[in-house]
């Protein structure tokens, strides 16, 4: 089953492993990719609504899959909600050896911390929980490109 996508946004490879198959069509040498499809977007946003229990149930498999990434770099969580405790992360089956949880220091905000973590490139994926403005989305995307990482922002509505 295919879902409609905007032509201005490409599907991120971030979730290909989660889905179990590549979403990229097989192309022959004679087909030329359009310029917007040549580079995948390193920023993605997931919007969840409902109770925290429901959101954790949906989020668990995604975080577990990302924590088991074969990339030697970290899966980094920036200021996760209080409901995502160490006990819950462990019970959800995350590989805690490849997980880094960061909290902003005084004078620093979650956005700045996420940008820095992405830019440094020590994480394959940086997950944040920030209400973002359009310019901030672009900034996270640029930081992710610099660090060859993926940025996933989760909005809890």
TrEMBL record:
<dbReference type="InterPro" id="IPR004596">
    <property type="entry name" value="Cell_div_suppressor_SulA"/>
</dbReference>
<dbReference type="GO" id="GO:0051782">
    <property type="term" value="P:negative regulation of cell division"/>
</dbReference>
<dbReference type="Pfam" id="PF03846">
    <property type="entry name" value="SulA"/>
</dbReference>
<dbReference type="InterPro" id="IPR027417">
    <property type="entry name" value="P-loop_NTPase"/>
</dbReference>
<dbReference type="GO" id="GO:0009432">
    <property type="term" value="P:SOS response"/>
</dbReference>
<protein>
    <submittedName>
        <fullName>CDP-glycerol--UDP-pyrophosphoryl-N-acetylglucosaminyl-N-acetylmannosamine glycerophosphotransferase</fullName>
    </submittedName>
</protein>
<dbReference type="GO" id="GO:0016740">
    <property type="term" value="F:transferase activity"/>
</dbReference>
